[in-house]
Amino acid sequence: MKTIGILGGMSCESTALYYARLNAGTRARLGGLHSADCLIRSLDFAEVEALQTAGDWDGAGAMLADAAKALEAGGAELLILATNTMHKVAGPIESAISIPFVHIADATAAALHAAGCKRPGLMATAYTMEQAFYLWRLRAAGLNPIVPGTADRAETHRIIYEELCRGDIHDASRAAYVAIAGRLRDAGADGLILGCTEVGMLLSAANSPLPVFDTTLIHCDAALDAAMT
User: Fold this and answer.
1) In whole angstroms, how far apart are CA 137 and each of 25, 84, 87, 189?
2) Catalytic residue flag (residue 196)
3) Which listed residue, of 20, 85, 104, 120, carries a Cα 20 to 30 Å from 137's Cα?
4) Residue ranges of domains in the chain, CATH in brackets
5) Which of 15, 83, 85, 128 is catalytic?
6) What string of pLDDT tens digits covers the 229 residues of the chain?
């Protein structure tokens, strides 16, 4: 098994989910006492969020590229970025390393195609729902993503940053997410991308009105596929 470098901390809540999923997936594939061979570089999300808010994506890209280089220097043989939003700076990260980079949107698009989903709804941060870097990647893969309306995008984003990234789970927010997913279904979505790595803390196949594509789980499985080839 190749050593997986995990560039995380954005937020630490979802990075913990990554670690758990990678280890559970390794055990399921290899059996016995096997666990994932991985390195984690967990950044201070407050610093990253400040750069997001300021629109300093060049600064954020430089920060994450440096962290990625450190993971490679430490022995990582492939890299995953444990966040959807910061794939906005995937370019600088990929340019800084020589090891394979497993892109979360590519893995998600492959899962959608395998399930026959063509018009997925997308619930994520405002950056991911409104900027081109993620939607473009999905469209380039032949998908036609649908984003929530203005008010629903704002509420989805607020819950992520004010609650989920802090580890706060509220039933009212869960109900709000279910309702937003329902409106995406009514708008013609045939699946639901949990396009922020924290959204799965509230939505799952058990309560979503649409088939769920949890990017955290999909990304981990793609990383294990790459690590075991």
Assistant:
1) 26, 12, 11, 18
2) yes
3) 20
4) 4-103+217-227 (3.40.50.1860), 105-215 (3.40.50.1860)
5) 83
6) 999 999 999 999 999 999 999 999 999 999 999 999 999 999 999 999 999 999 999 999 999 999 999 999 999 999 999 999 999 999 999 999 999 999 999 999 999 999 999 999 999 999 999 999 999 999 999 999 999 999 999 999 999 999 999 999 999 999 999 999 999 999 999 999 999 999 999 999 999 999 999 999 999 999 999 999 8
